[in-house]
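User: My instructor asked us to take a sequence, write out its structure as tokens, and then describe one feature of it. I'm not sure where to start. Here is the sequence I was given:
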Amino acid sequence: MILLLFFVLASSAPSQTLPDTTLSQIRFDQKLNTQISSDLIFRDDQNRPIRLGKYFGRKPLVLVLGYYECPMLCTLVLNGMIQTASNIPWSIGREFDVITVSINPSETPSLAAAKKRTYVRTYGRPGAANGWHALTGDDTAIRELAEQVGFRYAYDPASKQFAHPSGLIILTPEGKISHYLFGINFSSQELSDSLRQASANHVGSPIKQLFLLCFHYNPLTGKYSPAILFMLRLLAAATLLALLSLVLKIARRQKTPIPQPTQAPIAM
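Assistant: Let's start with the prediction itself. The structure tokens for your sequence are:
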């Protein structure tokens, strides 16, 4: 299913000018236990200047970086988060809050407000609007926050899009990084456990690098990098060889004559 999604994205992706060396840096650097600065200034969906620290000190937080006019990953990430959040007992605005921050400094609070309304309506639980904070900001604040959470991104002028990783960042009530959840689909159990642990100020362990490698693809074209393509082809070849070996073994067993039991001579 994930491969199919990548192929669909690839078929409609524009040409890109970012070199492979830049694209290879598009990832999350896991900075667990890092304290997010409470003094960073953004604008909320009502166009009011807001210190990020205003959202600290009460509940665990799900932080999502992307941009509101993103045609690909951001929508998929938020859709995945909403779907998963709808399947856990805790509710947005009651036991935890959500903060979405645009990495595009040209986006406006009115656009953030429109996106927030759409997702709150989709989520459907009461009180979610009070717990969902859709922020925009200037380039300095955006880059500082991205650096603190290890969110590596780049702007592609050819497509006028941002290349960025996909995932959620779980913060403790005090604003420390507790967990990372990567990808576009999230386990209900994993999200629930991460929020409960963050609520108790517990910091999780880094996700294994092999997991990250499996999601290492060109975020503008939706294609895997050559190194990953080679690995996937190698694994596919190994799987085919294993299946062929199994088929040959079964065929040989079927061709091998079954020895007939010898009968002792009947005494007269």
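For the description part of your assignment, you could build on this observation: Residues 224-254 form one domain. Try explaining in your own words what that tells you about the chain.
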